[in-house]
């Protein structure tokens, strides 16, 4: 190690390498993420835009919220372009440095040919040394040293030998380790400046940035809500298990995001001493005399008054209270989401006996009702038709005359009837109404319950984990328009689809000999169905259809149930499925239709045996196909969950909400008789076309028939909520074998657990209701 030398970079070449790599490391991701993108406006979105007065005012508000948007974009472009220019310059410097170090040619440096004599070489050296000598005006120390090395390499035998062997007249030299920093950093006259820069960066700037980040992170939750606000929500919801909508608004207005002490963005004006009391006198039932902390504080009363004024669509001073209203209303949706999370956590803690009071489902549903009220700026008791542009209280009497009570009913009318109701509006105003109505959501709400990974997924036993799969399909309300032209187009498309299906079926029948065996089995099953349809009695297979109401808008869904299979067929199907997909044992109930009438046949001749054998093979093949499709769907669901969900769905028409709003939804399961929540609400933030969700809860511990409700609620529109009832016939669980030594339990422990389960049961059955009555 004695031959090693550590030195700073004299020429600055390696320092250029360091700057080049560091700058490239910053520029590449910065350009990708920070380069301002100006997407071209979507022509379809432009056509769908509403031109009502509220939307025009909202555009102005959005522009005022970020007035320096274009300037910031230009500044970012300029910085990124300057960074790439500097990167190009550094790359050029590095390339020049590499060329000088790797191309040492003494003949080229002296400007002579390899066949030149010693006198010619000496003459060329003298001429160039007179020009490049450091003592001369045109001198260059670096070039003169290079010239001297070139002359030695051509005149000195040892130097020539080193050049020929190592490419350097000085020989191989010792191993050196260079530091990619220029030598002026360690020079004595620059030491104070260097130490000052280090102290400024590492002792002042870095601790300040880390401290600011830490101070902010400990004050906020993961959803950027103040921890003080979350603690206040917990206290109020715990002390008031059933909270009315009016009190929820009071708690929302008391959020510490609206106090100057916790939020520096809040502006306190001298004019508030006059304007706020005047506004309070115009608002009834505000509860300004409440003495609870912090409901009695002035910031809380002001925020509450502005929320009430917003829901009443009152006109405020645009220079003072209107700005405060916009700021407060903009923060309300995610504060309401924090409220829902707090109520849900309190319910979980109440089941775990860690809190005394159990919040009811009324409280969490009132929080959900408040969010669309804030977005659409009107009270819940108002007519939902007021969400359309240009619609006022005066127009509601025309809707009442036609017996139209909801937006869905109005959309189903013919265009002439819709126009006759709003004949007082101009054509452009009516077009705005149709645009907004056509872009509103129409949700197809489907629910399926099962017990996954059980031998029979449709049998619910006490204490089993019930999985409810909710499928949401979102389309525009324009599909409900009762126009004859739309109906004709729909009929034409359906006829084309049926014709295409028939053609595909014919092609499949022609090429059936070339298809795999497992697909041919499905075709055999179809034939067996057709044969069974023409039995002696002439009766089709028996099925029971149950229609369940799906919501307030009159939607319904049908579930078809068939008779169960025999035990022998279940065992054979189970063994075959285990061989195919490694133990996946969820059997689809729809695949059991072909066995529903197996017990009706009484002929034991050879033809019946053959048909039965073919039928069993086809059923096994179709069950395998169904289970394989289920397995593939689960894999796709897992991939979607790993990718994460975005917060982009569809834009909401909300002219009174001072920010861009996306369509979000809540899904949860509850028992409406006992007012208890069974699953945590899922906040759906990415419903563009179709989404599927799974909610799980534990079945009741006592066998009986239970009715639970799957709820879908919107956080953006009023009148779009849907309820779907599911009825569970809970059977008694199978007896636990007691011969295993690890499962032995004493009689005392069993009785204690049964008593505890009886006390903790929060489910209400139909028999309990009848007994109470």
UniProtKB/TrEMBL annotation:
Ranges for the J domain? 105-167
Q: Which GO terms describe its cellular component?
A: Sec62/Sec63 complex
**Which residue windows does the record flag with biased composition (Basic and acidic residues)?**
566-581, 594-617
Q: Where is this region: Disordered?
A: 494-628, 738-773
Kindly list the residue ranges recorded as spanning the membrane. 15-35, 74-92, 192-215
InterPro entries linked to this entry: C2_domain_sf (IPR035892), DnaJ_domain (IPR001623), Ig_E-set (IPR014756), J_dom_sf (IPR036869), Sec63-dom (IPR004179)
What's in the keyword line of the UniProt record? Chaperone, Endoplasmic reticulum, Membrane, Protein transport, Transmembrane, Transmembrane helix, Transport
Where, per UniProt, does this protein localize? Endoplasmic reticulum membrane
Protein's membrane topology = Multi-pass membrane protein
Acidic residues: compositionally biased ranges: 745-756, 764-773
- Any one of the GO BP annotations: SRP-dependent cotranslational protein targeting to membrane
Q: Does the keyword Protein biosynthesis apply?
A: no
Q: Name one GO molecular function term.
A: RNA binding
Biased composition annotated in UniProt, kind: Basic residues: 520-535
Q: Which SUPFAM superfamilies match?
A: Chaperone J-domain, E set domains, Sec63 N-terminal domain-like
Write down what this protein is called.
Translocation protein SEC63 homolog
Organism of origin:
Ceratosolen solmsi marchali
Lineage, uppermost ranks = Eukaryota, Metazoa, Ecdysozoa, Arthropoda, Hexapoda
